[in-house]
DNA sequence: GCAAAAGTTATGACGGAGGTAAAGTTAGAA
DNA sequence: TTCTAACTTTACCTCCGTCATAACTTTTGC
């Protein structure tokens, strides 16, 4: 899922114009990704991307208002992931258990949203201060969405300190493990190897938090 | 303490140049703060600040490489605060107890580093995406420094998942309460009132985490 | 005590991101 | 076919952050 809500529509509108729009957008995104991977995010200018895609500079910034939007996709899926895991938890399951299960299955599936993004993509992000800052913002939004979900699940106000603290703790564990995957990816480890390491470490990390939140927000 | 380590020296070096340097730096900082408060961070250009301080544009960016540096001072104190609290904990005291004590005393003292920065300053930060992103980065650095301190305190590697997770949890609580102070400041509450609210909420927030980390890194 | 050298500071000029306005072009409707 | 609305393009602008250059203060050699 992309940033724009328009992509949630089923491309039902009369095809030709919409189709060309999609193509143009995808073309720009592809060329941008290629250039970012090849020469880094900061070293790539919007003008270069526009030239590579054979469009005007303004067309690029029209589809992607900020340069970071060209690199970080699936933002909405990332931001809402934890909140959705809590909302979809099984009866009798606590938020803690649901989020631990979500992380372990994401690790087992080597889900890009959990941090399995490949060495080039990972290097692109950590080498760019702009993208790193953007990623921090996404983690923040994710925690905020989780706090709202926890407030709803426990029948408390979203301004209350308890759901906000719980969200911070739970999202914090996810964030630590996310960055652990990034670190291991940069160290040259393969996906399967990382998944094996992470399964053990995630279990330990959640075990540390378990005494505090094992029963919080039980459905 | 400022960003530059040069300010740690006692201004012993031959006076004239150093003195003028200090004066110029302070003058720029003062004019910048005035303008930021009056018309907001994003709406203030470096050229305006330079004009107000009667110096060249480049002189401003020479002292303050990035625009954010003009607004956010005391960065080092903020970043190292939690790690220092752990390093200076009393014998028999756990990291959890030391950090709870540090927060409660900072709240009682209405310490700016804890978030008591006044309504204008607070509004300046939250209304500026740039400054908000910068603040997120500082929180991140603070957590990282805490992780290193906890690894040292427990005799584990800084790459280990346990100190990193513990740092995330403890710094997370501090971050939630920091933003709570910001929210209450923006809502128009006074410092004493906020301190009273925060004392109760901080106690609750730490109580939530206590079962997990009460004995972690006991000195 | 003086002059040259060395390091530091301020200055003007430049590249890139992001935004606005107006004109040209193309898809879809009457 | 013709008109309307949208998307793309062009040109221009502001502003941040960096590069090479000029001016100054302190230090060093004589």
UniProtKB/TrEMBL annotation, chains A, B:
<dbReference type="Pfam" id="PF00440">
    <property type="entry name" value="TetR_N"/>
</dbReference>
<protein>
    <submittedName>
        <fullName>TetR/AcrR family transcriptional regulator</fullName>
    </submittedName>
</protein>
<dbReference type="InterPro" id="IPR001647">
    <property type="entry name" value="HTH_TetR"/>
</dbReference>
<feature type="compositionally biased region" description="Polar residues">
    <location>
        <begin position="1"/>
        <end position="12"/>
    </location>
</feature>
<keyword id="KW-0238">DNA-binding</keyword>
<keyword id="KW-0805">Transcription regulation</keyword>
<dbReference type="InterPro" id="IPR009057">
    <property type="entry name" value="Homeodomain-like_sf"/>
</dbReference>
<dbReference type="GO" id="GO:0000976">
    <property type="term" value="F:transcription cis-regulatory region binding"/>
</dbReference>
<feature type="region of interest" description="Disordered">
    <location>
        <begin position="1"/>
        <end position="21"/>
    </location>
</feature>
<dbReference type="InterPro" id="IPR050109">
    <property type="entry name" value="HTH-type_TetR-like_transc_reg"/>
</dbReference>
<dbReference type="GO" id="GO:0003700">
    <property type="term" value="F:DNA-binding transcription factor activity"/>
</dbReference>
<keyword id="KW-0804">Transcription</keyword>
<feature type="DNA-binding region" description="H-T-H motif">
    <location>
        <begin position="45"/>
        <end position="64"/>
    </location>
</feature>
<feature type="domain" description="HTH tetR-type">
    <location>
        <begin position="22"/>
        <end position="82"/>
    </location>
</feature>
């Amino acid at each position: 899922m992309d940033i724009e809500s328009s992509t949630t529509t089923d491309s039902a509108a009369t095809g030709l114009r919409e189709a060309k729009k999609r193509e143009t957008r995808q073309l720009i995104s592809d060329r941008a990704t290629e250039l970012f991977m090849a020469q880094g995010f900061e070293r790539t200018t919007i003008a270069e991307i526009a030239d590579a895609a054979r469009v005007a500079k303004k067309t690029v910034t029209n589809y992607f208002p900020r340069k970071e939007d060209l690199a970080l996709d699936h933002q909405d899926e990332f931001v809402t992931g934890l909140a959705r895991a809590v909302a979809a938890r099984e009866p009798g399951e606590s938020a803690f258990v649901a989020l631990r299960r979500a992380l372990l299955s994401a690790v087992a599936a080597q889900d890009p949203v959990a941090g399995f993004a490949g060495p080039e993509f990972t290097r692109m992000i950590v080498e760019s201060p702009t993208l790193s800052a953007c990623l921090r913002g996404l983690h923040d939004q994710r925690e905020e969405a989780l706090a709202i979900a926890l407030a709803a699940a426990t029948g408390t106000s979203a301004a209350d300190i308890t759901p906000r603290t719980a969200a911070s703790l739970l999202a914090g564990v996810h964030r630590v493990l996310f960055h652990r995957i990034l670190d291991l990816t940069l160290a040259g480890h393969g996906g399967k190897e990382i998944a094996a390491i992470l399964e053990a470490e995630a279990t330990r990390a959640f075990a540390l938090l378990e005494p505090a939140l094992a029963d919080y927000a039980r459905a």
